[in-house]
Design a protein that fits this description.
Layout: H1 10-26, H2 29-49, H3 55-70, H4 77-91, H5 95-100
Length: 101
């Protein structure tokens, strides 16, 4: 891990080092490679999704949301949570992941 990507606080660094050492002691080399690949791919997808909005983009999003709300096009809390739970369930174990485990 390069110094640019290291955790900024000591507590996080200790936690991650502890997790890493635990995994070193419990995973086979093949499972370490698989897990490393999965984490790398996930991290890259997250980085691609995270892009700061400009002020203009935020204003446009707010205006669109207000318009949709006025038109009755919105989800209540229960609908939004059900959608999130479905997304999380789909991200759980995929068939290729169960073969390694």
């Amino acid at each position: 891990m390069s110094t640019a990507n290291r955790p900024k606080d000591a507590c996080t660094a200790r936690t991650l080092n502890g997790l890493r050492n635990y995994l070193y002691d419990t995973l086979t080399p093949a499972n370490m490679i698989w897990l490393g690949t999965q984490l790398t791919e996930y991290g890259r997808r997250q980085e691609q999704r995270l892009k700061p909005y400009t002020r203009e983009e935020l204003v446009a999003r707010i205006e669109l949301s207000e318009q949709q709300f006025d038109e009755g096009k919105y989800q209540d809390f229960d609908e939004a949570m059900a959608e999130l739970e479905q997304e999380f369930a789909e991200e759980e174990l995929t068939p290729e992941m169960t073969e390694v485990i």
